[in-house]
């Protein structure tokens, strides 16, 4: 038996990185996973990989900044499997083009639309079917960038800091319905998105892995599976007294930031 047996789950941003690893892990642990992403090829591949492992997963294209798309994604899971137990609002973007004074309104708005508005829309869509189900677990991907002044990331940091506010309010408002709401703050995780960050001055995954490993007390780079495991724990019945929290998973980076 898996720790998520039978739990109907929606995972956004499931086409790559943390999302794709979570899809496979959740499915291996017995969850029925509806994968959402704007990357149709990647999302289909992610769901197919979960099925190849013996799990149950389907893909539906979804832009989380659009309310209709999010509602339809949740509705597809409910229609297919009869309810909703877990929402993992993981989709996010990271544009880094300069300091705050150089951040365009378009860049700021696009970041907020996906990261913060998208999280709001996922929470809002998940709550009614979870109330009908008698409870559930909502998880959002935030970032350690919400906790300290990471240069060249004004829009991203603002969007991730806002997620904490949404999580705390929702946890208080819906605890009576046995709905738990938490966020994960990943640290330095090697993903396709992090590899595209020009500020890190790492041209290969090996270089980035070495840089991350040297930046924190636990001397290794973070892996998407580190975040997927935390999300699975929050989704499971092993964490039924945990809500309203922002859980840092960063190898000890935050107490002594190694990048500035």
Concise description?
The chain has 260 residues and is an alpha/beta fold.
Spell out the key features of this protein.
seven-stranded parallel sheet; about 15% strand; 7 strands; about 260 residues; alpha/beta
Main sheet record: 7 strands, parallel
Task: Choose one word for the global shape.
Answer: globular
Q: What is the terminal separation in angstroms?
A: 44 Å
Which class best fits the helix and strand makeup?
alpha/beta
Order of helices and strands: EHEHEHEHEHEHHHE
Number of helices: 8
Classify the helix fraction into a percent range. Answer: 40-55%
Quick check: average pLDDT?
92
Strand order of the largest sheet: 3-2-1-4-5-6-7
Instruction: Please give the radius of gyration in angstroms.
Output: 17 Å
DSSP strand tally: 7
Share in β-strands: 15-25%
Quaternary status: single chain
The low-confidence parts are none
Describe the 3D structure.
This protein has 260 residues and is α/β, with parallel strands linked by helices. Helix content is 44%, strand content 15%. The protein has 8 helices and 7 strands; from the N terminus they run βαβαβαβαβαβαααβ. The protein has helices at residues 17-28, 40-52, 67-81, 105-133, 154-174, 192-195, 205-213, 224-235, and strands spanning 8-12, 32-37, 56-61, 86-89, 136-141, 179-186, 246-249. β4, α4 and β5 (136-141) form a beta-alpha-beta unit. α1 packs parallel to α2 (40-52) and α1 crosses α8 (224-235). It is globular. The mean pLDDT is 92.
């Amino acid at each position: 038996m898996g720790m998520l047996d039978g739990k109907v789950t929606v995972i956004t941003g499931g086409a790559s990185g943390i999302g794709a690893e979570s899809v496979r892990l959740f499915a291996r642990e017995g969850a029925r996973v509806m994968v959402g992403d704007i990357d149709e090829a990647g999302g289909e591949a992610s769901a197919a990989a979960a099925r190849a492992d013996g799990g149950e997963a389907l893909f539906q294209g979804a832009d989380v900044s659009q309310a209709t798309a999010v509602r339809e994604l949740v509705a597809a899971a409910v229609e297919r499997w009869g309810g909703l137990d877990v929402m993992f609002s993981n989709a996010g973007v990271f544009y880094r083009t300069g300091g705050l004074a150089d951040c365009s309104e378009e860049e700021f708005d696009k970041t907020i639309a996906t990261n913060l508005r998208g999280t709001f829309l996922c929470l809002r869509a998940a709550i009614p079917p979870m109330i009908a189900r008698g409870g559930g677990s909502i998880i959002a991907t935030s970032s350690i960038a919400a906790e300290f002044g990471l240069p060249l990331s004004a829009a991203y940091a603002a969007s991730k800091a806002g997620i904490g506010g949404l999580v705390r309010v929702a946890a208080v408002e819906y605890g009576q319905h046995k709905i738990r709401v938490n966020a994960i703050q990943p640290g330095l995780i090697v993903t396709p998105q992090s590899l595209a960050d020009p500020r890190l001055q790492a041209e290969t995954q090996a270089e980035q892995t070495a840089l991350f490993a040297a930046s924190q007390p636990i001397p290794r780079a973070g892996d998407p599976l580190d975040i997927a495991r935390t999300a699975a724990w929050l989704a499971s019945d092993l964490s039924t007294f945990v809500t309203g929290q922002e859980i840092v998973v960063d190898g000890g980076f935050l107490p002594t930031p190694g990048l500035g």
